[in-house]
Amino acid sequence: MSTLSLPNHLMPLLMHIEPLLIPAELYQLGEIVTVTVNASEPLIHIKTTNCDCSLAFNFVATEEDCAPPTYQVRDQWLAPVAELAELQQKVVADPSLVLCGFPAGDGCVDIWHHQGQARAIYCQHSGASEAQRAMLLVALALDYPLGDALVLARAHARSYQDHNHRAQGELIWPTDAKVFPRALTVNHPQIKQLGWLTDSQLVSPFAAVESNDFGLYPVLESADWVERVLSLGVKTTQLRIKNPQASDLEHQIQQAIVAGELAQAQVFINDYWLLAIKHHAYGVHLGQEDLDSANLVAIQQAGLRLGISTHGYYEILRALEYQPSYIALGHIFATLTKEMPSLPQGVSRLALYQKLIGKRVPTVAIGGITIERAAKVWRTGVTGVAVVSAITQADDPAIAVTTLSSILAPKVEIMTAGVCDDDKHYAL
To answer: Which entry of 2, 96, 309, 348 is annotated as an active-site residue?
Structure first.
């Protein structure tokens, strides 16, 4: 169970918080959240299984304060305001600083610190301020990371302002892509006008994949395994060699690429984009951290398809800005095949991510997906389902491929508007 403790002066937020906890519990988006009010405490306190933090809006330090809050959220702005680039540098220098609703251009920007960098989202309408604050707190109490909480908060603020007059009796949770902000990247059309600093290069859209050949998407650790699944009729797969010092790394990449060409299949190379370009791979798959270091322009100009890993709302928005060939959504369940810094998303969150993306780009669910779990993952509307040990550790990999291919057959009707658990499908 998670707890959200409010100071007395923020009690009015309860009228916004309580309605958000209903769909959060119904859709199983996190642990049950208990809300309390502490009249003697000036800070907001949030405690979950994985996080224990404090937060204050427009915090002003005093001698009585024992310690500053984990997050100092500033969401009130008076003219004249600073330049966006100046605030960007302040957030880089201060991990506790969170800036919300900063007026910029024709809209507003939310900025936060992430691993030594400043990240930001932009939207043209700020929405309702109390709704934004409430969703920020609820999302943090549900164990969403800060970036995702800010995305949800801005989307809810806009949705609440636009539709509250006719939302009485309806469950409130942002699902319409139109109310979500955009990640502020080099590909944002207003980045120069806004004054956001970046060293990245503008990237053109990546080549499209054949989405009808997705469905089953094995992620494999050797070229031999790639050849094996292609011989079983799999049309899309990925070579993921974890050790960059492997003596036969380049040979295996070349072997997998040739195998894909012979089978007329879509073979993606994980991480090693330089070798993928050198040997004319069909595509490359990159993680979020690789977006800052890989030469995306070179990958695009070489004609390679690009898949990008994501682990939540902000990373999805960021990936969409680069117009990749597909987006991977994960990790859905706990997995032992790769050490993950993020929490398992679960099928309910996956369904919401798929609803946000819609048909803009193909999607692949990944992480801990077994034969038993594949059907409910498939019902969320994703384009493909990535598996690892479900094939490589199967008693008979050929039977595993046949079984999974049957489960992941082309959909007659794609259901992307709901949230699933083991037994139910909830319409949103």
So the answer is: 309
What type of residue is 337? T
Q: How far apart are CA 351 and CA 330, in angstroms?
A: 12
- The pTM for the full model equals 0.93
Q: What ranges in 302-394 are assigned the alpha helix state H?
A: 313-321, 346-357, 371-378, 389-392
Is pLDDT larger for residue 419 or for residue 157?
A: 157
Q: Which amino acid is at 165?
A: H
DSSP structural state of residue 412:
S
Residue 74 appears among annotated catalytic residues: no
Average pLDDT along the chain: 92
Query: 324 with 361: CB under 8 angstroms?
Result: yes
Active site annotation includes 338 = yes
Q: What is the mean pLDDT of residues 54-81?
A: 85
- H-run or E-run covering 111: strand 107-114
User: Residue 235: CB partners within 8 Å, gap ≥ 6?
Assistant: 210, 213, 214, 215, 263, 265, 266
- C-alpha of 275 from chain center: 27
Q: What's the rounded Cα separation, in Å, for the pair 374 and 194?
A: 44
User: Is 240 tagged catalytic?
Assistant: yes
Q: Does pLDDT of 165 surpass 90? A: no
Q: How far is Cα 276 from Cα 285, in angstroms, rounded to an integer? A: 10
pLDDT at 343: 81
Rounded to whole angstroms, what are the CA distances from 224 to 132, 253, 280, 336, 424? 51, 11, 19, 22, 40
Of the residues 119, 133, 235, 240, only one is catalytic, namely: 240
DSSP state of 5: E
Interior CA angle at 278 toward 275 and 279, to 5°?
A: 90
Residue in 213, 210, 211, 202 with CA at minimum distance from that of residue 301: 202
Structural contact between residues 160 and 129, judged by C-beta atoms closer than 8 angstroms: no
